[in-house]
Each structure stands twice: as structure tokens, then as C-alpha cells.
């Protein structure tokens, strides 16, 4: 059984994923697959260089992700071009890797699950949600951003309301780690039952 896990920036996806991982659930992360997809020598990196030029490459020959982010942040058409290139590759890598999964169910962590047009054939969608204020605080602290910069990123993502409406399951991440882990345990037990039925 495949569970698609998503949530806005600063919602706590990494923390929740770690809670599932300690229960021996296999995790496949879109961000990790994205790094593999644009590694030196990969066809996707060649296409990115051809499209954006060598200024998006570091001296070591690796992708300068920050430079690329800066370019696409204010250029929706360039962002769309990049998503159309990378997201099918990322999805395929995740599902290929999941063929070797030995856990009763596995998690696909896809931060932009709703933002892209690429469909992920998952059985359920789990959304990690938190208040806007906590999102802002966590994003500022983690990424060293100003409040306005953090808000700009949040504004580019789909709304919390949209995510919640399309979720099968929701984890509320507004409390402490113990409370979060209890929510994960309940869902874990539920997913185990579903995977056996």
C-alpha cells in the first residue's frame, strides 16, 4: 500500500517521516530523488544546462540549486518547464525504488503533491498541517529567512484548506513531539490494518 505524504513548507513533514521510519516503514522522498535526478552525468542535468546556461552550475559541476530557485521563483513559465522535466523522473524513480520495499506499506514524501500536474498513484493521501504562524516561525528559523520571504514561499503553495479538503488523513502538528508521535502511532496501526485487508 502506498501513502502519499505532503504538507506546506514548515509543516513538519521531516519530523513526521522520522516517526514513521522508526516504525520500520520504508520512506521514498521526492527531494532525495530530485537530487539523484540532477546529479552530474544525469540526462536531466544536461537538459537544465542547455535550457538555463552554465550559470546554474557550481565549479564542481553540480547543480547550484539556490541559483536555479532564484531564477524560477519569479518566472512561472521557467518553473513549469523545470517541473515538467523533473517530476515525471522523480515519480518514476520513487516507484521503481518502492518495488524493493519490504514494509507493510510505504510513504512517498512529495512536498509539491498538489502543485504539480504529475499524478502519483497512491492509495491514500496524508497531509501534515500546522497553523500559519507556526509555519512562518519554523520556515524563518530553519532557512534563515525574513517573515516576508517565508510568507512569499507559503503563498506560492496551494492553500491549507485545499490540502485538507483533498486529504484522506491529517496529522495536526501544533503540539509537542510526544503528541505528534501519538498521532503517527494511531495512523500506523490503521495503515497496518488496511494493508492486511
Automatic annotation (TrEMBL):
Q: Which residues form the signal peptide?
A: none
Query: What pathway is this protein a component of?
Result: Cofactor biosynthesis; coenzyme A biosynthesis; CoA from (R)-pantothenate: step 5/5
Give the highest taxon in the source lineage.
Bacteria
Q: Which InterPro entries match?
A: Depp_CoAkinase, P-loop_NTPase
Note the coiled coil stretches, chain numbering. none
Q: Identify the residues that bind ATP.
A: 10-15
Subcellular compartments: Cytoplasm
* Catalytic activity from the UniProt record: 3'-dephospho-CoA + ATP = ADP + CoA + H(+)
Output the PANTHER family linked to this UniProt entry: BIFUNCTIONAL COENZYME A SYNTHASE-RELATED, DEPHOSPHO-COA KINASE-RELATED
The protein depicted here goes by the name Dephospho-CoA kinase
